[in-house]
UniProtKB/TrEMBL annotation:
Entry keywords, A to Z: Pyridoxal phosphate
Task performed by this protein: Pyridoxal 5'-phosphate (PLP)-binding protein, which is involved in PLP homeostasis.
InterPro entries the UniProt entry points to: Ala_racemase_N, PLP-binding_barrel, PyrdxlP_homeostasis
Protein name as catalogued: Pyridoxal phosphate homeostasis protein
Originating species: Streptomyces cinereospinus
Family: Belongs to the pyridoxal phosphate-binding protein YggS/PROSC family.
Domain Alanine racemase N-terminal, first and last residues per copy: 11-236
Length: 239
């Protein structure tokens, strides 16, 4: 256990150094960027270690794994982010522990989130997940709405009881015009964020960048990076 804590502490320090260097290079204060550690596939014991090491934001992508983990860690001062594709039949469970749902990408999900948040007496922060590789009206293969669909969804979230319109999230596309051009993809996200803030000034979060491309995200202006592998190690393959 001590070994694991040392390992995570070392990785965390290296990631912290990367974020610090990226902020310095971009002329941004370090406090502008929040580290979210993606704990998917890793046990609650690792979440506890992260909390002891000062991490305050964790993310999960599957409710089946996240719900018991969050319950085991309910004594810890952590904000839980849900970052996976979310089926409406899982929303009641997710709303029970998630402070922020980063994968909002369709109106039916918004209405279900609102209903369940109200029922649970909770306020849930929402990020619209943007698929930069989707066509103008289509949805992305890994979830996410095309840029043209952001405004309508944002209005719906903002008008829904129990929900808070917090901003945008994306995963750098593997295909299409932005494949291999993470920096350009994240800069496009910042433009979309500027547009969104004209009508929703409080929706300032831009969640972008993972282990491999956090520097490009920080350079573009991301406010939140979601880092898994670089902190916890290479994930065992899911069946
Ligand atoms: C797994 C995951 C991450 C973290 O990816 P790493 O490459 O392990 O840092 C970030 N965002 C989402 C949506 C994920 O599913």
């Amino acid at each position: 256990m001590t070994d694991r804590k040392d390992e995570i502490a070392g990785n965390l320090a290296a990631v912290e150094e990367r974020i610090g260097a990226a902020c310095a290079a971009a002329g941004r204060p370090r406090e502008e960027v929040t580290l979210i550690v993606v704990t998917k596939t890793y046990p609650a014991a690792d979440v506890r270690i992260l909390s002891e090491l000062g991490v305050r934001h964790v993310a999960e992508n599957r409710d089946q794994d996240a719900a018991p983990k969050a319950a085991e860690c309910s004594d810890l001062p952590l904000a839980w982010h849900f970052v996976g594709q979310l089926q409406t039949n899982k929303v009641r469970s997710v709303v029970g522990y998630a402070d922020v749902v980063q994968s909002v990408d369709r109106s039916r999900l918004v209405t279900t989130l609102s209903r369940e948040a109200v029922r649970a007496g909770r306020e849930v922060g929402c990020l619209i997940q943007v698929a930069l590789d989707a066509g103008e009206s289509a949805r992305g293969e890994r979830g996410g709405v095309a840029p043209g669909g952001i405004a309508e969804l944002a209005d719906l979230v903002a008008g829904s009881p129990g929900l808070r319109m917090d901003g945008l999230m994306t995963v750098a596309p593997l295909t299409g015009e932005y494949a291999g051009r993470e920096r350009a993809a994240f800069e496009r996200m910042m433009d979309l964020s500027t547009d969104l803030r004209r009508t929703h000034p409080a929706a300032t979060m831009v969640s972008a960048g993972m282990s491999a491309d956090l520097e490009q995200a920080v350079a573009a202006g991301a406010t939140h990076v979601r880092v898994g592998t670089a902190v916890l190690g290479v994930r065992p393959r899911l069946g």
